[in-house]
Every structure is written in C-alpha cells, then in structure tokens.
Amino acid sequence: MSGAGPKGPRLGLGLSEDVDLLRFEQQARDVEAAPGPGPATPGEWIRQNLFSGPVNALLTLASGTFVLFVAYQILSFVFVSAEWEVVQVGMRGYMIGGFPVDEAWRVWASAYLVIVLAGLSYGVSARRLRPSAGQAAVGAVVVAVAGTIVFFTAQTVLVRALTAGVAPAVLAGALVGRLFGRKILRPLIVAWVLVFPAIMIVVRGFDGVPPSEWEGLFFNIVAATVGIVASFPLGLLLALGRRSELPAVRVVSVGLIELFRGVPLVAWLIFSKFVVDLVLPPQMVIPDIVKAFVAMTLFSAAYVGEIVRGGLQGVPAGQYEAARALGLSTTRMMALIVLPQALRSTIPAMISHFISLFKDTSLFVAIEVTDLLAAARRSASSLQYFGRDMETLLFAGLIFWAVAFSMSRWSQRLEVRLGVGRR
What we know:
Elements lengths: L14 H19 L8 H8 L4 H28 L3 H5 L1 H5 L8 H22 L7 H21 L3 H8 L1 H15 L4 H20 L11 H27 L4 H15 L3 H10 L1 H4 L8 H26 L3 H9 L4 H16 L1 H14 L11 H8 L9 H30 L5
Helix pairs in contact: 6-9, 6-10, 11-12, 11-15, 11-18, 11-19, 12-15, 13-15, 15-17, 15-18, 16-17, 18-20, 19-20
C-alpha cells in the first residue's frame, strides 16, 4: 500500500524521506524543462536569431535593406532637403498660438509648477536616483536632441533660458523629494489634486487670458487634462450605475454610455457649438469652448465607464462574498475591495484611451480652434513657406508622439509597480 505502482515513486521510507524524494524528483523535472543557456556573444545571438537558416537569412537581408533605405531617406530629408526655417518662425504659434505675448508668463508659470511637482513625485517614488548606464545614455541622447531643437527654434534668449531651466528644476525637485521621502507624500497628493485649479487661476485670474485665445500645444494639453480629469470620476459613476440593481439608475447609465459612445467626437463638438445654443434660454450664454469641453468629457466618460465595467466583471465573485461576510456595506466593499482590483487591471486600457483622447484634441479644429496641428498647417500655408507642409507636420507629429510616448512609459512603470498581469 505504501508504493505508488510500478511506474510511480516507491515511497514508504518515512514521511520526511518521502517528502525529500518527491522534492528531488520535482527539481530534476524542473532542470530538464529549463531552457538552455543563451548566446554568449553578439555574434552567436545574430547567428541564432537572424541567420539560422536560408529563409531566415533572406528575410533578414530584405528587412535590413528596407530599414536602411527608409532611414537614409529620413536622414536625408531631415539634414539635407528640409527647410526648418518655417518651424523656427512659427514656433510661438505651435506652442501658444494667439496667446498674448505679454501674458506668456502665465504659461511658463503653469509649466514650471507641473515640472516641479513631477520632480518631487519622482524623488519620492524612485528607489534610487542613480540611473543605469543604458538609461543615462538614452537620457543624454534625448536631452541633446530636445536641446538642439529648442535652441534652434527659440528666437529669444529668455525663451532659451526658461527652456534650459526645465532640467535643473526637475533635478532639484527630485533631490528634495528624495530628501524628505514619504513625509511629503500627502501634501504632494493634495498639490496634484489642486494643481489644475491653480493653473486655471494663474491663466484666467487677475485679468487673465480668456479661453477663446488658448491655442497651440497649450490648448491641446489643457483640453486633454480637462477631459481626463473630469471624465474619470464620471466614468466610474457610469460603470457602477450600469451594474446597479436599481432599474432607473441602470437604464440612465446604459443610455448615456451608448449615446455618447455611438457618435464620433467631432460630431459632438460640432453639436456643442451649433445646436446647444438652440435649446438653451436666450439669456444663458456659455462660451463655445466650455460647451466643447463638456461634450468631450461626456464622450470620454462613456469609454471610461465601459473600461471600468470590464474591470469590475473581472473581479472574482469570491471577493464580493468575502466582503459581505466581513459585514462591509456596499459602499465600503466597492471602495476598499472591488474598485482597487478593477482599476488595477484596467490600467493598460485606461491609459490607451487617455492617449487617444489627447490626440483627439486636434479635432477641435472643427469648431475653429487653432490647436498644434492646425497651427502647423497654417504656418505652411503662407506665401513665404507655401508647400513646406512636410516640415511642419513632421514637427507637430514629433511633439504628439513625445507626449503620447511619455504617457505610455509612465503607464508601463505603473503596471510594473502594481504587478499588473501577475498573480
């Protein structure tokens, strides 16, 4: 009775001996299933992965030739054929558009406020401030490229000095955050919550600049921030309402989600400008940009609601039962048990949606708002630089890509820290 059959392990030597024997056999199976050592040199890696056979070698040569051709064409255009003077002349229009020049200090003050908070956050959250050799090399290349672009396109010494001060401001914030550590975590969270209202006070307060004059990249960032910040809590409410047991709440939530999600954003922007005023009382005057922000927020909230609903459905039923067994109310169960797990699993989809929302801010051109993309196209339509669309659109695309890539990298760091995708 002590044996496991003719093909199984022969036990019966005692409990400790049986356990040791089973552990030894499991380790032997793990060793057999473990992958072999990888290539020791770059030459071996290239031979194993790129030239392991005739077909693989042919594909490698064809792909390499195509990549070299594309790289040659791009570098030839960037450094030989392109006339970047159109970008240099129109840089102020790309950044702030028709924003009054004498009020541009408001934009710089807002930018430095966010930069300092970002540095503090990095210093508080980072385990170490000494980057690896690879990270340092990539950072040096990025700073060099960004510095070259800025100092080539900036037209005044003041703008160059303010731009050059970004890196020291981030470093100083990181050092201060590292020095105080978790002691300033709560004040830092409160500062991030209040930073957008503070920026609105800086820009609009004290005889500031009205929203009708917000243009360029500044408008893209403000519009995306409004859409992200306002749509996230509203989307949470829609997701919870869609799963509510109250029929009225569920029907209203489903109706709002399906209505705003089923119509393109550009249609809602046009609707907000030309149709909303027809149903409002004559004495109620709302700026067009405010109505557009509301339409974009509702549109984004519908998608956020669906993303969060998917996360809620992914929470195991045992979590709900365990929370009820502990005597937690529905509100506390959702806030402490269910929502943290649901939001953790929806980080990739949520950040992807927010990146798309940032890029969709270029659709505001449909209601005659000059964003970054519209400013780039406008600068190439002048008689002096007519036909230089490639330079302006390439520069605008580079800025959009830089912002979207930064959001993506931040999302990946957050996923690693929270262990998304791991049990």
